[in-house]
């Protein structure tokens, strides 16, 4: 399997606290939030987040072209920032990269962001570009799986993975229902980049042991997009914490058994957090073998749910602590799909 050489992250300029989010929601609603709803939104586990635009931007109706313009401007900037840092950390030049994988479900461009990066950052003109749309919150783990497969191809390749999401572009105050308010209270913007290598000479770097994923039937209403008048409209239906307990846990048990691992054999897992209640369900699953998922909680608190990049933010923090035991990667996303992986020290 391939080696994980580096991870870097990038954030947009506009920081907003959760208290400020609740104030924006009340302003958009034209009245104070109902007590019960304010309590739910305030208990999300999030203290602050970063957005592509200042808060007042989201109080106005925006057309498809306007949203696409922001995605192009901010998305390309964040992608290049994260990619540049990941390459520097890996001691590689753009010309050393054989393939660029982009994971993104909150916008799309043709030519793709990786294609545009070739000229902007002086990658070799033969660099393979692989834009992937549709994985949502599971995209961070599934992107690592794809990058690992590409890196292991042939005699070994250097792959740059970019996970970019501007979730705030889906905020829509013309549909001021509970689902959209919860989405506004959870989702954020961010980008992560990683260098994965199948070449020799990187023996000191962590390696990928295995990946797996499962998509359950009759679960498409749990998470996804509908195409609306002004952009993507969020689909967010069933109780995901209950799904973690009932469906995800047995799948994870079976995956670990195949890998010859018990939960007690693992270091702290890197999980896509979802929200506060999802973290609680994951902690219940790992208890009592593991004391908690502090890095996952911390990333949710300081950055919110950025969809696909979030698990890479968590993984970066855990790798900085120097792995001594295998690390489990987990994420849940549209499909409804679970994605799992194991990183070895």
From TrEMBL:
Domain Chalcone/stilbene synthase N-terminal positions: 3-197
CDD domains for the chain: CHS_like (cd00831)
Domain of life: Bacteria
Pfam families: Chal_sti_synt_C, Chal_sti_synt_N
Domain Chalcone/stilbene synthase C-terminal residue range list: 213-329
Keyword annotations: Acyltransferase, Transferase
Family classification: Belongs to the thiolase-like superfamily. Chalcone/stilbene synthases family.
Name of the protein: Type III polyketide synthase
Source organism: Parasphingorhabdus halotolerans
Lineage, top ranks: Bacteria, Pseudomonadati, Pseudomonadota, Alphaproteobacteria, Sphingomonadales
